[in-house]
Write a structure and sequence with these properties.
Layout: E1 5-9, E2 12-14, E3 35-37, H1 39-54, E4 59-66, H2 70-80, E5 84-89, H3 98-112, E6 116-120, H4 131-139, E7 143-152, E8 156-163, E9 166-173, E10 176-180, H5 192-198, E11 203-206, H6 239-248
Parallel strand pairs: 1-4, 1-6, 4-5, 5-11, 6-10, 7-10
Antiparallel strand pairs: 2-3, 7-8, 8-9
Helix pairs in contact: 2-5, 3-4
The structure holds adenosine monophosphate.
Adenosine monophosphate is lined by residues 9-11, 38, 40-41, 63-66, 96, 98, 101, 119-120, 122-123, 126, 128-132.
Subunit structure: Heterodimer of an alpha and a beta subunit.
Subcellular location: Mitochondrion matrix
Domain Electron transfer flavoprotein alpha/beta-subunit N-terminal: 25-215
């Protein structure tokens, strides 16, 4: 069978286990905390590696857009089994929004000519759930979002999607965009020998200017606030008392 080329975009985000806090100026969350690869992107890398295990001539290219630290995330992808990495350097991560990332990924896709791009369904820091869909639109490629199962043949992607009340299976021609849902797979941990090997794998750098992409933000953050504190609960004496409080205090 022919060889496949897969791009996997991976984002460096605040680690899922960190309790996120708003900064004192209320302009952003405190980003001075542990970061890791976006969990849905780990699932995307894992899926690409599983495809490569079945079709060994597959080439996996991890791409990350962001500050120099994004290279740590790319090394993790390489240690999990990606073959090479591309870092699109954007000094200030806060300037990057999904449309800008989608345009950068489109430019990379036009250079690398992949058969498949597997993204996370969403980044857990901005919860946008936009980049994959925008990229499919910009490239004019079919998209299969929220994948819980993926089967690839020479020319087709068969994807099972989690939809309300069940599972939907669709088939699309390649090249295509797939976004991963939580239950697609359980990502492997990179072994120490593979972490060592990853240091020698090729990592090339690019910039929005080199890719001729304008990443000017389209949205402005006005403020960032903590959610309202929960009010303490109250015990009621009787059902009548409950109904009275619901009517007169909670105004239900
Ligand atoms: P979002 O639309 O921000 O929720 O992100 C959806 C997916 O797009 C992520 O799971 C990543 O696969 C990809 N993505 C978003 N931002 C970046 C980035 N800065 N670098 C690489 N991939 C990204």
């Amino acid at each position: 069978s022919k060889s496949l080329r897969i791009i996997v975009p991976v984002k460096r985000v605040i680690d899922y286990a960190v309790k996120v806090r708003v900064n004192p100026a209320k302009t952003d969350v405190d980003r001075n905390v542990k970061h890791s690869m976006n969990p849905f992107d780990e699932i995307a890398v894992e899926e690409a590696v599983r495809i490569k295990e079945r079709l060994p001539s597959t080439e996996i290219i991890a791409v990350s857009c962001g500050s120099a630290k994004s290279q740590e995330t790319l090394r993790t992808a390489l240690a999990m089994g990606a073959d090479k990495a591309i870092h699109v350097e954007v000094a200030d991560d806060s300037k990057l929004q999904p449309l800008g990332v989608a345009k950068l990924l489109k430019a990379i896709a036009e250079e690398q000519k992949p058969d498949l791009i597997i993204l996370g369904k969403q980044a857990i820091d901005d919860d946008s759930n936009q980049t994959g869909q925008m990229l499919a639109g910009l490239l004019n490629w079919p998209q299969a979002t929220f994948a819980s199962k993926v089967e690839i043949t020479d020319t087709l992607a068969k994807v099972t999607r989690e939809v309300d009340g069940g599972l939907e299976t669709i088939s699309s021609k390649l090249p295509a965009i797939i976004t991963t849902d939580l239950r697609l797979n359980e990502p492997r941990y990179a072994s120490l020998p593979n972490i060592m090997k990853a240091k020698k794998k090729p990592l090339t750098k690019s910039t929005p200017e080199q890719l001729k992409v304008d990443i000017t933000p389209r949205l402005e953050t006005i403020k960032v606030e903590e959610p309202a504190k929960r009010q303490g609960g109250k015990k009621v004496e009787s059902v009548d008392d409950l109904i009275d409080k619901l009517k007169n205090e909670a105004k239900v």
